Amino acid sequence: MLLCDNSLYMKIEKQQIGDLNKKSIIAHKAQFNFLAGQLTHLGIKSQQLIERLKAFQVAIPSWALGAGGTRFGRFSYGGEPSTLEQKIDDIGVLHALTQSAGAVSLHIPWDTPEDYEAIKQKAALHNIGFDAVNSNTFQDQPDARQSYRFGSLSNVDQHVREQAIHHNIEVIRIGKKLGSKSLTVWLADGSNFPGQHNFQTALQYTQTSLKIIYDSLPKDWKLYIEYKPYEPNFYSTVIQDWGTSFMLAKECGARAYTLVDLGHHLPNTNIEQIVATLLHKGMLGGFHFNDSKYGDDDLTVGSIKPYTLFLIFNELVYGMAKNPQNPEIAWMIDASHNIKDPLEDLIQSLEAILIAYAQALLIDQQKLRAAQEAQDVALCQEILQTAYRTDVRPLVKESRLQLHGALDPLSAYRSLGIRQALINERGKDARASGL
Ligand code: LRH
Ligand code: MN
User: Which of 41, 125, 167, 419 has the fewest CB neighbours in a 10 Å radius?
Assistant: First the structure.
């Protein structure tokens, strides 16, 4: 624990991590050298791959550092961050251990900064940047004049639309003060019963409202439009799928893009094909990584469908090489932790993301294209699954080691007794704002 402007905060020193790594460094080097040897044999330069893993930074959602919950209950975790400062400290812990959590994505008003300079200083202390800011027009604020019960940017009531537009412009203003360069808009807007909505009117109001928000963006900002098929509305959602988001973004302008939240797809949707389509059109702005079995379950990344995550990264690796028209993609996690320690859950999600990326980087894209052209279906599958079945964990560990992170972040987190230290500092009943 370290003292910073008279508040105690958790900071893990490189020395502490180095000492922990000593216990497993010999085993790691043996596994890494064996894999690196195999890859050299295949003409793959491990260090080039490692540099890409080191550069891959994922933004942590400010709303997912406490225990999540459902309408059926919420189980507090103890030592949760109840201020934005404490949330940044927790992301600092994640980044120190994983060296891949180099940014925070704020949700407004859940995490509106009080002291901007103090927040920026604290983030800088932990080498954390500010990624996309998220607006919230799916909950009514205590002092709000208008209600979002029947929607926000699509609401038939002009005053409600104006309030929602104003909120988004306020969120941009907050983001500018922190150095963020993008706004994510997710709308809960929709209907619960047939006949409740005039679909065309709702879509047109949404289009017009988004355009006003887009036109108030600073010239170097991007707008991400996040789609979702259902919840909290259960009959229709205005921005229900990638096509609607794509269309609305195109109408807004050149700096508006589609954001893909992995949990926002109906069962068995081919998400990797959606990703390829968006890349092909230069419209893939960002990701919300998580995993799910049924709905928007917000589970640990790679915990349910790791092969799908791998296939998505295959399209991303191909697209990052082939689609210069697509902007730099914003990588973010969007998860909710109902039964796991939030920090352990995020450590596992970061690991799963880097493993899927490393596996996809092993795919010989030229060989795959040749097999596709030759319509050698079995060979296409072999090329993919050879990469998927390669244990790339030594590469991911080596990328962390080279950045002075932990070889095994989860066991380091436990060995350092961080959760108990947070409970001692913040108490068992501390509760984080957010989902
Ligand atoms: C909607 C969503 C969106 C956030 C919210 C916290 O389901 O994915 O990205 O605003 O979760
Ligand atoms: Mn999301």
Answer: 41
